[in-house]
Each structure stands twice: as C-alpha cells, then as structure tokens.
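Good morning C.,

I know you're traveling, so I'll keep this short. The sequence:
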Amino acid sequence: MSISVNDYIKYDLYTIFLLTKENFSLSLLRKAYQRQILIYHPDKFEPNISNDEKKEKYNTFNLINSAYTILSNDTLRNQYNEEKLKLINSLKNTNKQLNKVGALNNGQVNNGVINTSTHTVNHMNNTTNIQINNFGKENLDYLDSEYFKDLILNNHIEKAYMKLTEDIYFHKDHPENKTIKIENLNNKYAFVYKEGIWKGILKYELKELLHNKNSQLLKVHCKKLRNILDTAKKNSISVFLARDYDGDPHLKDMNDRMVLLFYEGKPKSEI
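The tokens, ready to paste straight into the viewer:
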C-alpha cells in the first residue's frame, strides 16, 4: 500500500517512537516499533472494550504502522522532514497574520467594543494587592521534579495534561499566576495579563500556546523519568504527545475544556 507523506506531516512521527529527528537511527526505530506494535496490535485488544475504544486503538495501530513505513524509508523520511519544516514555517506565518487581525490597541479591540480597563477580574477578587506575573512568565518554581514524578506516574497522560494547567494557573498558593481570564465563551477573544494591563488574544492562539507549553513540560520531564516508566506508560505518553493539535478532535475537545476552566475561574475539582 502506497503512503502519501502529506497525509502525515501534521503528526510528530518521531515522538510516536520516543525519538527525535536529531537522535534518530534505524536500529532505534525498529526496537521502538516492535515495542509499540506488541501493545497496540488488534490481537492484544481486551475483549470487553467499547467500539469507540476499539476504533481508537485501530487508528493508533494504523498510525504506528504508517509512521514506521515513512521513517524507515530514506526517501519518505527526507520528504517528511522537508514537508514538516514547510508546515511549521507556514503555521508561524499564519499566527503572525492572526495576531494582526486580532490586534488590540492598549487593551481595546479595534472596533472599540471591548476595553479591558473597564472590566473587573472575574474570580480574582483576592488578587488586588498581588503582583500578577506576565502571561508566559508564570512562576513554575514550585513544580519541581517530585511534582512531575507524581503527576506522570500516578495519572493517565491526558489527566496529567489537564491537571498541569490547573496547577499552574489555579494554585491556591500562587494567585500571581492567574494571568488568563475569559469572560465570554461566545467571544473569540480571551485576555492575558502583560506589562500591567489585560491584553486581548484570540482564543485559538491561546489554546495553542497552552498546548505547546504543557506538551513541552511533559516531554522534558517524561524524558527524565524514562528509566522508571514502564513500557505501557511510555507508549501511551508518546502516542498522546504525537497527536495533531489541529486535526485531532479529542485533543481539540480537551483544549476546549481548558478554556472552560478559565471561564469558570477555578479548577475542575471546585466546579
């Protein structure tokens, strides 16, 4: 069966096998492929799983096979690397254009409808005398190695992904990290705190920034824990982190739920 590389550039194929473009080798790929395929082969499916779970496992199994086919072939791998780079550069240019379209002037939307200077900070009544950090510069010092060890070892990767957001932006002892607010679910804008004022940002861009931040933090700390993670945990993490942000409906739903957290102004456990 022939494979179109263009159908797979939206995925991080290296991450599926816990590899990077820089440390890639065919021998490492083959070993990782054998581990993955033993776990996700249809013969290994539990007999009582639901049709939805079965479908997702089939999709994962097919993705693993396709990823191996591409990365194990020099021509296809080089084509994938080239097209992936083009996609990344294209997304960067698209984000720049989105920023221009949604640009705010001193906290005010171009049409003058929204002005953050007239908005109170929802659910932040106790932060009046607290110096809020700049968005993107939140204090993460309290999220140490032991925190990430507990987060990753004792939670499914999807729960860890969501809990990380809660522990950064809603930690009761760190209100200085409340750098995001969403006051209207139907409006395309959210607000982030920067340089002493609340500035507008497109929700689409905010969700992508949060996704990238969480994914990067989890990748770094999963790598540190790789010697104590069992094979099943490693594989579930690698598959999750390889998901396509734009094209995966389940990941989109997770990030939509993340937006709801900021609208509610409190972690899921308190809603």
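Safe travels,
E.
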